């Protein structure tokens, strides 16, 4: 067993928006919060006894503003390289997510009115481009970056050899984490069916827990049960021509 420790770094609220500090032989940060949160993340890393300058890597799970918003500044503060998937390069390079957001339900429609989701972050160029499964041993972590497209085309998750899945927005807690432990969609998906396919592929790998961008860790079996219900819901929407997707399929 690798003994990788997963430490949530709250960015907004207790767990409304999370980054994660992964401690193996070297520390790795997953996600970079909202614009203007770099110093907060930096200081919370230090509060866990880790020198932020020792970060081996910053992994960005996808091109939404609450996940890559402070990537550029964290790179400047720590010197750590930033890894991102090639399919989300446009948001990274422009500082803006692809528009329009495609809400998954009432929460997404409400949040879509929030001006903070439409601001521009400092753009950045990932120093490490992800296009497929990527081993993290060179960065001191026993684990892999796994492409999990659907939420965005370039969404990724990090799976440790211990079985912890740091899943970004592959799934969330209900109401942005206000109902802990209850699986739900995040507010937006570019491709709901594609995301469900990615979620099932990760569940098939037998993770022990899912650490998500919005909320507390989720139990895999509970997520599996939710995914079965979600498949039926999406099938109904698709049959009625009401399933919105950025893909052409």
TrEMBL record:
Q: Where is the Metallo-beta-lactamase domain?
A: 16-214
Coiled-coil spans in chain: none
Name the InterPro entries on file.
Metallo-B-lactamas, NDM-1-like, RibonucZ/Hydroxyglut_hydro
An example of a Pfam family matching this protein is: Lactamase_B
Report the protein name in the record: MBL fold metallo-hydrolase
Species name: Streptomyces virginiae
């Amino acid at each position: 067993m690798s003994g990788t420790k997963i430490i949530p770094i709250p960015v907004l609220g207790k767990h409304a928006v999370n980054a994660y500090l992964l401690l193996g032989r070297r520390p790795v940060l997953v996600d970079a919060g909202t614009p203007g949160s770099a110093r907060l993340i930096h200081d919370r890393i230090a509060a866990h006894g880790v020198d932020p300058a020792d970060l081996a890597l910053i992994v960005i799970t996808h091109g939404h503003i609450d996940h890559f918003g402070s990537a550029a500044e964290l790179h400047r503060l720590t010197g750590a390289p930033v890894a991102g998937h090639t399919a989300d390069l446009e948001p990274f390079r422009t500082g803006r997510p692809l528009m329009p957001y495609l809400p998954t339900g009432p929460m997404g429609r409400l949040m879509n009115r929030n001006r903070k989701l439409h601001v521009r972050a400092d753009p950045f160029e990932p120093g490490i481009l992800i296009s497929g499964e990527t081993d993290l041993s060179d960065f001191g972590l026993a684990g892999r970056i796994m492409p999990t497209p659907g939420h965005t085309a370039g969404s990724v998750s990090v799976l440790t050899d211990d079985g912890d899945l740091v899943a970004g927005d592959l799934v969330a807690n209900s109401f942005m984490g206000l109902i802990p432990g209850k699986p739900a969609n995040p507010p937006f998906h570019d491709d709901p069916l594609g995301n469900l396919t990615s979620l099932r592929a990760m569940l098939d790998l037998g993770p022990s827990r899912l650490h998500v961008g919005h909320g507390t860790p989720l139990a895999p079996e509970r997520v599996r049960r939710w995914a079965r219900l979600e498949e039926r819901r999406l099938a109904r929407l698709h049959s009625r021509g009401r399933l919105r997707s950025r893909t052409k399929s």
